[in-house]
Amino acid sequence: MRADRFTDKVALVTGSAQGIGFQLALDIAKEGGKVVISDVDDEALREGGKVLAQGGAEYLALSCDVRDRRQVEAMVNKTVETFGRIDILVNNAGILKNFTIEETTDELLDATIGINVMGALYAIRAVTPVMKKQKYGRIINVSSICGKMGDHSTTYVYGASKGALLSLTRSVAYQLGPFGVTCNSIAPHAVMTKLMAYWDEGRKKDAAEKIPVRRLGTVEDMSHLMMFLASGEAGFINGENVNINGGYYMD
């Protein structure tokens, strides 16, 4: 990795007050990028902002519920107003709950589709004019292994929402590729973030034993991959979904 890979680049990462999104923002900042972290957790945003500030990062911390089109548009407008451009959009905001089909309420259906799918749709639409004008952009959607093989352990709408992101990635790649904007997605598995808090130690051990590299994923693993996809070095990768699961699922 080069220390200056993201110099003069602006990255907007949703759902990034903690976990994968925050690690990515932190790493991009360390390589010279300006970063915008956004989340609905205002306290976590404040704490994340302190960490970025201590590292000397140029950053914004913006409260945003991605289910609300107006909030997403305001977030994008504030980013452009402050930094003059948006080079990288990472749709990382997500919700995952552990319920059976019968237990899945209408409210959870709406929240899952709203955050995991509509949030990405709103954000991509909002940044498109900016990236087209620049003739440059990198869009990354955080999908899941569940979007490819279905999900037998969480609410059934989660896998459906992550599958939608795979199709969305290809649609955007086709339409924005001619303008110098690429769109790719990643499909993680068994990354121990706050979303996975319902996994006990036994389940973690069992999952690790089923992964060929014999360990669970880390936020650093995810960040390293997304940093490459977000960089100028990945300009000929477009419309792809990259599995990142230690070899648990291969296609």
Structural overview:
With 251 residues, the protein is α/β, with parallel strands linked by helices. It has a single domain, classed as Rossmann fold (3-Layer(aba) Sandwich). 46% of the residues lie in helices and 15% in strands. The chain is built from 8 helices and 7 strands, in the order βαβαβαβαβααβααβ. It has helices at 19-30, 42-54, 69-83, 106-134, 146-149, 156-176, 201-210, 219-230; strands at 10-13, 34-39, 59-63, 88-91, 137-142, 181-188, 241-244. β2, α2 and β3 (59-63) form a beta-alpha-beta unit. The protein is globular, with a radius of gyration of 17 Å.
What is the count of structural domains? 1
State the fourth-level CATH superfamily: NAD(P)-binding Rossmann-like Domain
- Do you know the CATH architecture? 3-Layer(aba) Sandwich
Shape: globular
Major β-sheet annotation: 7 strands, parallel
Give the spatial strand order of the biggest sheet: 3-2-1-4-5-6-7
CATH topology: Rossmann fold
End-to-end distance: 27 Å
Strand content: 5-15%
Radius of gyration: 17 Å
Low-confidence stretches: none
Order of helices and strands: EHEHEHEHEHHEHHE
Structural class: alpha/beta
Number of helices: 8
CATH class: Alpha Beta
Helical percentage: 40-55%
Average pLDDT, rounded to a whole number, is: 94
Number of strand segments: 7
